[in-house]
Amino acid sequence: MLNIRVRLAITFGVFWAMAINYSLAATEDVIKLTFLGTGAPRPSLDRYGPSILVEAGSHRLLVDAGPGMRERLFQAGGFELLTDIDMIILTHLHFDHTISVPGLWLSGWLYGRKVPMRVYGPEGTSDMMENFQSAYAWDIRYREIVGVHEEGSELIAQDLESGIFYESDGLSITAFPVEHMPIDVQSGELLGLEGDTLGFRIDYQGHSVLFSGDTRSTESSNIIGFGNDVDVLIHEVQVPAPGDSPEARLANVSLSVHSTPDQVAEIFRQTRPRLGVYSHIIPPELTSEEILSATDYDGDMLVAEDLMTLSIGDEIRVGVTGGSGTNIFTESDVVDQ
Ligand SMILES: [Zn+2]
Ligand SMILES: [Zn+2]
Questions:
Q1: Given CB 3.0 to 4.6 Å as the disulfide criterion, which of 2, 135, 236, 320 pairs with 300?
Q2: C-alpha–C-alpha distance, residues 14 and 8, integer Å
């Protein structure tokens, strides 16, 4: 049903008319998502780097922290959101998923957050966060000397194993490995790089959402098992570049670690989510119509856009946020009185 509505809405160009007010959903028994960035490494003014805000009851956290996340977060909810987020979960350590961690950690603290930033991710996350702390030690010391509060400048990290790693007030988050490590394109053999890449499933009050992370698609994909009975399945996608030019060949090298629309359609067919969603779109200039028309799937699905919201409850509602500009910051929030 939703599929028909969404596809029709996109077709007739009234997609944004379905907008809901930003503040509506978070207090209900729903999972609310705000897509802060739906692109990938290549810069795009329309699709910032991958990052999704998750709100459920009193919980607020980010899945990934791509380029521009801090600005989109500010656009979605001003200083209130910027200073309230204290938890980031990372699917993997590519820069397009991590580069805004220091930006939010430090500016959230500078403008008022007084609890540490907690970051969860695959093997190597703790090392990366320690390096961020070393890199910005001078900045933090400088600001503390001129009077910025000391609480909240800490960055606490945890490397994850598979399984449930977070359970609190009805929210549980499960990590599972996905297949994004480099392989020999001819043989399919792993090339031996250390580390791991993850997908996440979040469950809250009987509702659920799965994040594929970056992944190729195989018959053994964990997304099939963990995506079984999920309400919303958010999957990355790379549409192959046509032709055999050097540019096309270069663009298509990364197909061995990402998923084509045909492959995602097969994942959707096997999991049948209430709603399938594309985000982390390669290349970012693709339109929704182009991606949907390349996807042979008859279930409900849509292509995420930056600042789109999804409210996942008994109904799944699509909206848009942003352009607040009404959040006024006062200096008394920065310095201890
Ligand atoms: Zn990526
Ligand atoms: Zn990646």
A1: 2
A2: 9
d(CA 167, CA 119): 15
Range scoring the smallest mean pLDDT among 6-10, 237-241, 274-278: 6-10
Find the ligand nearest to 180 CA. Answer: 2
CA of 246 relative to ligand 1 center, distance in Å? 22
* Measured distance CA(56)–CA(63) in Å, rounded: 13
User: How far, in Å, from the CA of 328 to the mean position of ligand 2?
Assistant: 36
What domains appear along the chain, each with residue ranges and CATH number? Answer: 2-319 (3.60.15.10)
Strands 207-211 and 31-37: unpaired
> With the CA atoms of 265, 178, 119 and 48 taken in that order, what torsion angle do they form, in degrees rounded to the nearest 10?
-40
- Tell me the mean pLDDT in the region 120-142: 98
Q: What is the pLDDT of residues 39-98, one digit of tens each?
A: 999 999 999 999 999 999 999 999 999 999 999 999 999 999 999 999 999 999 999 999
Distance between CA 120 and CA 62 in Å, rounded? 10
How many angstroms is it from 212 CA to the middle of ligand 2?
11
Taking the CA of 64 as reference, the closest ligand is 1
Residue 96 designated active-site: yes
CA of 180 to the centre of ligand 1 (A): 9
Beta-bridge partner residues of 87: 118
CA of 257 relative to ligand 2 center, distance in Å: 8
Residue tagged active-site, from 96, 231, 300, 306: 96
| Residue 25 confidence class, pLDDT cut points 50, 70, 90 | very low
Cβ proximity of 65 and 91 under 8 Å: no
